[in-house]
Amino acid sequence: MVKNTYYSQIWQTVCAIPKGKVACYGQIADLAGLPGRARLVGKSLGFVPKDMFVPWYRVLRSTGQLAFPLGSEQALHQAGLLQEENVAVIANRVKLATFQWQPTLDEMLWKLTS
Question: How many Å apart are CA 35 and CA 28, to the nearest integer?
Answer without folding.
Answer: 9
